[in-house]
UniProtKB/TrEMBL annotation:
Pfam families: MotB_plug, OmpA. Belongs to the MotB family. The lineage of its organism: Bacteria, Pseudomonadati, Pseudomonadota, Gammaproteobacteria, Oceanospirillales. This is Flagellar motor protein MotD. Gene3D superfamilies: OmpA-like domain (3.30.1330.60). The keyword Membrane applies. Its main location: membrane. PANTHER family: EXPORTED PROTEIN, STATOR ELEMENT OF FLAGELLAR MOTOR COMPLEX. Residues 131-251 form the OmpA-like domain. The chain crosses the membrane at residues 21-39.
Length: 265
């Protein structure tokens, strides 16, 4: 008779992995239960939200011209027409604005000739220019008293008219003061430098008061050192006492202008 083999109940087990596997499955089950609980919709809150949204979209419009949504918006015939802008219409709109434009120098000179015909005939004002610049010269006796930088009543009217012509343009303007060679040394001015600079600044100040952009303006005093003619006679000295408005297409100095003149045939 065969002998039964004893089963060793205390020996090593080869199915221990089943315990870890069962724990893992239990944890995964719990994890998915939590996810489901989080993603479940609260039916009560959902109904409240839905009713509020329905009330908003069904509310009567508060505008006399409500904005249509969806296909209804395509029925408006003027929507696309307003977006069509022809190139020539853009050009017309740009030119009709009040933004100052760059001046055409010959046309600007023509405007001065028409506006100051009387002063030009009297020889008190003179004009000289080209395609790139315009030089307006005014005798100091029209603008200031002897040894003074305070504009006369006549000067205020003349400068106001000048500002009216220049107001529609954006070109830079350099105002120059010039004197004769007769020395000056009074309580206000120690030299002709001071007097010429003060007169130029006085004109610039009034141009600004008349509405010109101050960033366009510059004041320069040359004293007696840029004469038109030799200071040998009273008439010549009177010609040298002057205010010059140098109007150019771009920022230009007296040195630049002199170089241009010398280069001209």
């Amino acid at each position: 008779m065969a002998r039964r083999r004893r089963i060793n109940l205390h020996g090593p087990s080869h199915e221990r992995w089943l315990i870890s596997y069962a724990d893992f499955i239990t944890l995964m089950f719990a994890f998915f239960v939590v996810l489901y609980g989080i993603s479940s919709v609260n039916e009560g809150k959902y109904k409240i939200l839905a009713s509020n949204l329905i009330g908003v979209f069904n509310a009567p419009p508060t505008s006399s011209n409500p904005i249509q949504i969806g296909d209804q918006a395509r029925q408006i015939p003027i929507t696309e027409k307003r977006l069509i802008v022809q190139p020539n219409q853009v050009a017309e709109q740009e030119t009709s604005t009040t933004v100052p434009q760059e001046a055409d120098m010959p046309k600007l000179q023509e405007a001065f000739e028409q506006g100051f015909e009387g002063l030009l005939k009297q020889g008190v004002m003179s004009l000289e220019g080209s395609e790139d610049w315009l030089e307006v010269t005014l005798g100091s006796e029209v603008l200031f008293g002897t040894g003074s930088s305070e504009p006369t009543r006549k000067a205020e009217d003349v400068i106001a008219d000048v500002a009216m012509i220049l107001g529609g343009y954006s070109n830079p303007i350099q105002v120059e003061g010039h004197t004769d060679n007769v020395p000056i040394n009074n309580r206000e001015y120690k030299s002709n430098w001071d007097l010429s600079a003060a007169r130029a600044a006085s004109v610039v100040r009034q141009l600004q008061e008349e509405g010109l952009d101050p960033s366009r303006l510059a004041a320069v005093g040359y004293g007696q050192f840029q004469p038109l003619v030799r200071n040998t006679t009273p008439l010549n000295r009177r010609k040298n006492r002057r205010i010059v408005l140098l109007i150019s297409r771009s920022a230009v100095t007296r040195k630049d202008l002199d170089q241009v003149r010398q280069a001209q045939p």
